[in-house]
Amino acid sequence: MADISWISTPAGILLCLLLRQQIPQVDAACTFPANFQNTWVTNSRGTWTVNSSHISNFRTQMDTSGTTLYTMECHEVYTGYYVLKSEETFNTTDNVYTCLFLEQQSSTKYVYSILTSLQTVVTSVSERVTTSATSLTGSTVCDDTVYTASGERTYVALLSGSEAQGKTTCPDVLQSSFTYIGTNCGNTSLDICTDTGTLAFDMTICSQSMMFSQNGTLYCLNSVEASGYHYVTLYNNDPTTPDGTTYFQFSCLVLFSTGTYVHVSVSPMECQADQNALIAPPGGYITALQNDKTSTCYSAPTTEESVKTTLIIVAVVLGVVCLILLIVLILCIYKYNKIGKRKKRSRRLIH
């Protein structure tokens, strides 16, 4: 074995110091906020472990097999957004980049959005990432900033162990007592008046999963109004960990109110792209809440809200009618062309 005792001599120490100055130090290009450096449970990207420069266990779907976890480095801060770069490679050569909008709402809750355009990663799989073997900058990665804090692409991160502290007041249209109207468990009561931050279903009337909760108690975490709809993220307060099949830790509602009824579509975990209150999202369902107008919390919708609701209903109905007419038109054209081809063949046979 080589004798390395010389390292402890003054000359050895000096040499080590000189060599250290020549070795480049590998550091992340940016730093996450001190309050963000913790473990966070999210409703769209798994459970993150965050230090000053990296987010570990950042969930993506990069192939047809399902979830892929990456360690994402803070690569750049671009106009207030965090450009993330994977330490691991995709397809052996490319790093994965995405753009994170991050906003602290309290010491135990952040809201975030992914601001990279949707792209096809592999056949049948699309993700909000950019992949590249060469280094990318924020102007390339952060190319879809319209959804900074609106609609179905606003997500929630809760401090692990303090999830219940993320509860906030539900939007006004949900602050009342309701009769839950569904294909099953009709006439179940729902109280969002006693505690305007909590959805409390009466499970003695029906024990079915209510908004993917087993015990029927869910907390409002975040609410965004966009294009006439309310997008509401809920936290399931079940005492046992949800199984991820029948019950889920989070759910997302898209709703609008007519005063008498609140029309709702329910999706597990996160809202889906283009989800609206009248069409069932993938893996979810639609329902309605009949408002108890005698509830002490109930407030009638304003004229503006009533007009907006009417316009939404008319737009949806017209959209469905137009789709049906388009299908009929396509079928008619197809049939007409088919008949025309038959006539041409008949004429050729006659001649």
Structure overview:
The protein has helices at 10-22, 138-141, 303-350, and strands at residues 39-42, 47-50, 54-63, 66-78, 81-90, 94-106, 109-114, 119-122, 125-127, 130-132, 155-159, 177-181, 188-191, 198-201, 217-226, 229-236, 250-257, 261-268, 285-291. It is α+β, with helices and mostly antiparallel strands. It folds into two domains: 34-163, no CATH class; 167-291, Lipocalin, CATH 2.40.128. Strands 1-2-3-4-5-6-7-11 form an eight-stranded antiparallel beta barrel. An eight-stranded antiparallel beta barrel has the order 12-13-14-15-16-17-18-19. The termini are far apart. Residues 13-26 and 303-307 have low confidence and may be disordered.
